[in-house]
Amino acid sequence: MATQTAARNGTLVHKVSEALRKSILDGVFMPGEKLPSEAQLTQEHGVSRTVVREAVAALRSDGLVEPRQGAGVFVLDPISFAFRRTNPMVDSDRIYTSLEILEARTPLEIEAAGLAALRRSPAQEEEIFEQHAAGIAGRNDGKAWSEADIGLHLAIAKATNNPLFATFLEMQGKAIIPQTGQVIETDDGGEVAYRNLLIKEHERIIFAISNGDEQGARDAMREHLKGSLGRYRNLLREERVRHMARLQQDSEA
Hints:
With 253 residues, this protein is mainly alpha-helical. 71% of the residues lie in helices and 3% in strands. A hairpin with a 3-residue loop joins β1 (65-68) and β2 (72-75). The radius of gyration is 21 Å and the shape is globular.
């Protein structure tokens, strides 16, 4: 009986951990977000607290979540998981930040834009424009915007007709776009204004691709990604300042 119970619990742990893992990698739970409480997960999955604890422990060993004393369990950037899964020689303790991924993406996507200008098929060009139109239509909706933003970059990568460009981006899932769930934490007007800026940058890229302007496409993509790097670094800098201010306040309390 004890053996049967252990086997059943093992199966349930796997089932719950895989469900949570899929939710994290699909962007249902974004980096920095807190997972539902142990009680909520117990009720949602119809399992015991022991099963939930072991499932979360499995996610922690994968580097997908981080328990924080007295605060709960928080989602980490899934980039580290993706790289460890596809690159077993990578140090398991190495965490790839969104900034590092964006830096790595920059030369790759600059090249992709130039190749897309030379190699795109009519159908691929249409897909690029459709994703751009979806971004314009969804700029007031964070989820719709993120999906269209990712879709546009993937469409350009696929238009190179070299599958490795798209594979690199697809491997990262929704973490391909650093601002998704992380950067934009302003009021609705500020979010839309930021997205309008990105739309203009996207337009310069896709029009250059459509015109077969290889160098123009490279330059536009370089400007777009370098701008994103600068904006992201500024946001990280501001967050460090806020963090230091909070530490100062805590020490004075």
